[in-house]
Write a structure and sequence with these properties.
The chain is an alpha+beta fold and 453 residues long. The protein folds into 4 domains: 2-139, 3-Layer(aba) Sandwich (Trna Endonuclease, Chain: A, domain 1), CATH 3.40.1350.10; 146-153 and 180-320, no CATH class; 358-418, no CATH class; 426-453. The strands form 9 sheets. Strands 12, 13, 14, 16, 19, 20 and 21 form a 7-stranded mixed beta sheet that branches. Strands 1-2-3-5-7 form a 5-stranded mixed beta sheet, sandwiched between helices. The protein has helices at residues 9-23, 66-78, 97-108, 120-129, 158-165, 228-237, 246-252, 265-279, 406-417, 421-425, 429-449, and strands at 26-31, 40-47, 50-59, 63-64, 85-91, 94-95, 115-118, 133-135, 138-140, 145-146, 167-168, 179-200, 203-217, 224-225, 242-243, 255-258, 282-287, 293-298, 305-324, 327-336, 339-345, 361-364, 369-371, 376-378, 385-387, 392-396, 399-403. The structure holds zinc ion (2 copies). One zinc ion binds at residues 350, 352-353, 355, 371-372, 374-375.
């Protein structure tokens, strides 16, 4: 907890906001204060079905005296809330005896606005209870839960082998073991409510009452909202997590990286609120009393958006690379046990034109390439697939023929030389076919000319 001392007053409030949210208080938010005394935290608890507001005063000082507690007591009394209220003072330091006596007296006298005092020692215990880590003077989101990186029945390489299964001319038994790494990516599942009413002189022109749930890639520098498929994968498997056991993962994968949550929960929360405010911004057209049409951009206020939950989890991104001949094939996916979302499929992609293939992909055993229909040919001598990239070519009967190598070409040259003429012609069926049609046409024309038909 020593690092707490390096925090500014504001950072301390941010930290406490995270702590309270973790402890299960609801609608934890910072109240904007008028004077220069910093901000209070407002939060709620539900007691016997009734919401009770708690106003928290944060004091990042060595010692807190009776006036602070007394002032909070009057602030609670005037705080606008439809229900019971209580108070709390938290400090990194300690409370003076008069401060403690004052708080005790409120409680003993059955005052409607009791005040709880939490000092530095209490804070340390609380932080330990909820597993918050203090890192560089800030607390980051800590999480030890991950979705499963490995398909429980198909095994680590199951998904890659499955992807290779649809490649023509490739026996999956010939595949080498792929090099496979896993990166545990921090994500946050966020639910939030936006309730906003936009009014002008003519009345309410727009209203938002919406619940949003989305997934955030908690990248340290650039948090971003996850795309639909990844979001769904994580949401659907959120309750099926396992402990992130790094040594066990290192035995299973060739490389293991665990990315950390680089920001505090409050920072992610603020980021999410900004995105939601943007998301719910709309331009509304309305008619004024003077019958003139106006447009107004409606953006929810900060206080219109409340984040209800932020839950961290790791989602494993499994990257594999399989080497075949001169090529290596990347295959990357987000995993959740037997389910996954493919991020990169370098297996169903032609190495020659780099186009992704929905249709047939064929393996060239000669060089290890995977090819589209256009870039795969039949080896003339062995009648096996060969790609245009590695094949040795030569024209026979005006048609290009493909060979694994010069040796095969030379062997075919000899075969060709020994062929009777009609068989040579069969090396170019379209030409022969075309000539045949041509020949028949000539015969017909002649027959017509000579009055035979
Ligand atoms: Zn191609
Ligand atoms: Zn090839």
């Amino acid at each position: 907890m020593e690092l707490l001392d390096d925090l500014s007053g504001f950072q301390f409030e941010d930290l406490m906001e995270d702590v309270f949210r973790k402890l299960g208080y609801e609608n934890v938010r910072q109240a904007v204060k008028t004077a220069d005394e910093g901000r209070d935290i407002i939060m709620e608890e539900v007691v016997d079905g009734r919401r009770r507001a708690i106003i928290v005063e944060c004091k990042h000082t060595d010692s807190v005296g009776r006036p602070v507690v007394q002032k909070l007591h009057s602030a609670i009394a005037t705080f606008d809330f439809d229900g019971p209220k209580r108070g709390m003072v938290v400090t990194t330091g300690r409370f003076t005896s008069p401060a403690r006596e004052y708080a005790d007296r409120l409680r003993n006298n059955g005052d409607p606005y009791s005040i709880e005092l939490l000092d530095g020692t209490d804070l340390r215990d609380l932080s330990e209870d909820i597993g918050l880590d203090i890192y560089n003077g800030r607390i980051e989101v800590l999480c030890n839960e991950t979705l499963r990186p490995v398909d429980p029945t198909a095994g680590r390489d199951g998904p890659v082998l499955e992807a290779f299964r649809s490649i023509e001319n490739l026996d999956s038994r010939d595949l080498p073991t792929p090099w496979t790494s896993v990166t545990f990516e921090p994500v946050l599942s966020i639910t939030a409510r936006t309730d906003a009413t936009f009014e002008t002189s003519v009345g309410v022109i727009h209203q938002i009452n919406q619940q949003d749930a989305f997934l955030l890639h908690a990248d340290r520098q650039h948090p971003r909202v996850a795309d639909g498929a990844v979001g769904t994968l994580v949401q659907e498997n959120f309750s099926r997590t396992i402990d992130l056991d790094e040594p066990a993962m290192e035995e299973m994968f060739d490389e293991v990286d665990v990315n950390r949550f680089g920001q505090t929960e409050t920072e992610y929360k603020e980021w999410a609120i900004d995105r939601l405010r943007e998301h719910h911004t709309t331009t509304v057209e309305y008619t004024g009393d003077n019958n003139v049409t106006y447009t107004k951009e409606c953006t929810p206020n900060l206080s219109d958006v409340s984040v209800q939950s932020i839950e961290p989890v790791y989602v494993p991104e499994v990257r594999s690379s399989t080497s075949l001949g001169e090529y290596s094939y990347p295959f990357t996916y987000y995993a959740a046990g037997p389910s996954r979302v493919t991020v990169e499929d370098g297996i169903h992609r032609c190495v020659h034109c780099d186009s992704a293939q929905d249709g047939t992909c064929t393996y060239c055993e000669n060089c290890g390439s995977i090819n589209c229909k256009k870039h795969i040919k039949t080896e003339r001598l062995e009648q096996e697939p060969v790609c245009t990239g590695c094949a040795v070519t030569e024209r026979f009967f005006l048609r290009t023929k493909y060979f694994y190598d010069e040796e095969n070409r030379d062997e075919f040259r000899e075969e060709y030389a020994a062929m009777p003429a009609y068989e040579k012609a069969m090396e170019n069926p379209p030409l022969v076919g075309g000539s045949l049609v041509g020949a028949i046409a000539v015969v017909l024309l002649l027959a017509i000319q000579f009055g035979l038909l």
